[in-house]
Amino acid sequence: MASAHLIGLETMLRDFSRRGTDQPGLEVPRQMQILHAAGLTDLPHPGQGATLLRWQLLAQVAAADLALVKLFEAHADAQSILHELGVDTHSDTGLWAVWAAEPPYAQVGITARTHDQVRLNGRKAWCSGAAHVDHALMTVRDEHNQPALVTLAMQQPGIRVTTDGWQAVGMAAADSVEVVFEDARAQCIGDSSVYIDRPGFWHGAAGIAACWFGAGVALARQVHQQARRDAHSLAHLGAIEAALGTAQAALRACAQWVDEHPRQDAEFEARRLRATVEAAMEAVMHHAGRALGAAPFCRDPHFARLMADLPVFLRQSHAERDLERLGQLTLEHPVERWDL
């Protein structure tokens, strides 16, 4: 089953990853619909014995296209969140998104309620794939300005998907636009603590590192295939090998930890993994560009897209702020954890 899933994805994504830069923006959501219709968006949930397989599938999609994996991972994340919370979604077929960003300039609030059925008003930012998904899992503010979590169907009169808030070049096809809600219908499934405080929150955060890793592997393969066999190129390839090896080991170790401790707080493990993989992918990009020169940036659409998209996707990390928090968590652990 696992092998068939991986092979199925590889087959369906091979030509898509090589498409030209002149292809219209609808190519990514169209490919997402194809994968969904083929049953390839149904991933094992993290912490249930197959976390590594889940991350392998995310990495494989990321290796083909990072804007596509942005939608793919969000759909899988929504399914896992709702499964973890015990929310029945069998009647809500189609593609899902997760929108949890709450910048001060874009807030959505509950303005009316009948039991768990609520009405929403406001504006939500950073809504990836908003024009193409069928349902969303979203953080909002309740009547007392406290965090809440809702699900909603996108095809209703009270929702307007704008083109505002997204001027990106890298990750352009992710279309993380702003959405306006005007008396939109939704179902409240809990306060935000059910989203943030569940063990799966950090499992999902760790899964993002698998997406970064998949893109790095795709770049490394191009260096392996195309680089000259001179001293400088081999040095770059050696540096890439060292970076990927470190990231790969960290991903495998974290996946095993998640499966062995599915109900434990995984913040430390997830933050350490993300920091490790982020640093490795920055090294891969640095060495891949220097090993291959300008040609693939200008002549290879797959390479060019990955090199434009990955720096943007990596900024889903909060850089030094995340490292600061990792340092705080490190002080809570004994130094003996570093012993071999």
Automatic annotation (TrEMBL):
The keyword Disulfide bond does not apply. It comes from the Bacteria. Residues 112-183 form the Acyl-CoA oxidase/dehydrogenase middle domain. SUPFAM superfamilies: Acyl-CoA dehydrogenase NM domain-like. Gene3D superfamilies: Butyryl-CoA Dehydrogenase, subunit A, domain 2 (2.40.110.10). This is Acyl-CoA dehydrogenase, middle domain. The keyword Oxidoreductase applies. Keywords: Oxidoreductase. InterPro entries: Acyl-CoA_dehydrogenase, Acyl-CoA_Oxase/DH_mid-dom, Acyl-CoA_Oxase/DH_mid-dom_sf, AcylCoA_DH/oxidase_NM_dom_sf.
